[in-house]
Amino acid sequence: MWRRYLRFWGDDAPSDIDNEISFHLEELVKHLKARGLLDQEARSEAARRFGDVARVRSECVTATERSMRVSRRRDARDALSQDARDAFRALTKHRGFTVGAALILALGIGLNTTSFSFNKALLFPAIPVGDPAGIARVWSQNMEHGIFATLLSEGDIADLIAANRSFDDVAAYAVEPVTLTGSQDAERILAMRATTNLFRLLHVSPALGRAFDQGDANADTRPVVILSDRAWRNRFGADSSSVGRDILINGRPHTIIGVMPERFWFESKDVEAWLPRSLPRAEGGREPRSLMAIARLGTGISLDNAQADMRALAQRLAREQPRTNAGWDVYVSGLLPFGPGEKVFLGLVMTLTSLLLAAACAHIANLLLARGMERRGEIALRAALGARRGRIVRQLFVESIALSIVGGACSLLVAVPIITQIRIVLGSRTPYLSDLSLDTGTLAITSGMTLLASVLFGLVPALRLSSATAGDALKQLSGGTVAGRRRSRPLASVLIGLEVAIATFALIITVLYARASSNFFAIPFGFESENVVTFRLDVPEYKYAEPPAAARVLTSVHERLQRLPSITATGASTRFPLSVGGGLPTEAIAIEDRPDIPSEQNPWAITGVVTPGYFEALSVPLVRGRTFDARDSATSQPVAVISRSMARAYWPETEALGSRVRLANADASAPWVTVIGVVEDVRPFDPTSPQVRQIYLPFAQAPSHALVYFVATADTPLSRLQDVRAAVRDVDPELPILDLQTMKETLAKQFSGVRLGQASIRVNAVIAVVMAISGVYSLVAFTVARRRREIAVRVALGGTRSAIVAALLRQALRPALIGVALGVMFSALVSRAAALVLFGVNPLDPVTYILTTIGLCFAAGAASCIPALKATRADSVVALRSE
Question: Distance (Å, rounded) from C-alpha 747 to C-alpha 740?
Answer without folding.
Answer: 13
